[in-house]
Amino acid sequence: MKAEEAKRLIELEEENKRLKRLLADAELDKLILKEALEGNFFVWPKFSGTPADNVMSCV
Q: What pLDDT, in 10s, does the model give residues 25-43?
């Protein structure tokens, strides 16, 4: 393998790694949006009063 070919191979491998990361990020974004549209997400409860009141309201 020539030096030019080896350099090109390394460039292609780096580009492939970058594209795989972009695809994974896009798939994760898609999954998050799908979950949000289906209403499958956790909403933190709103607390008020003293910390002791908040603990008792969660029990």
A: 999 999 988 888 888 666 6
Lowest mean pLDDT among 11-20, 24-33, 41-50: 41-50
Residue 58's contacts (CB-CB under 8 Å, 6 or more residues apart) are: 45
DSSP state, 52?
H
DSSP string of 4-57, one letter each residue: HHHHHHHHHHHHHHHHHHHHHHHHHHHHHHHHHHHT----PPP--S-HHHHHHH
By the 8 A CB rule, do 58 and 45 touch?
yes
C-alpha count within 13 angstroms, C-beta hemisphere, residue 25: 6
What is the tally of structural domains in the chain?
Answer: 1
Q: Range of 9's domain?
A: 3-58
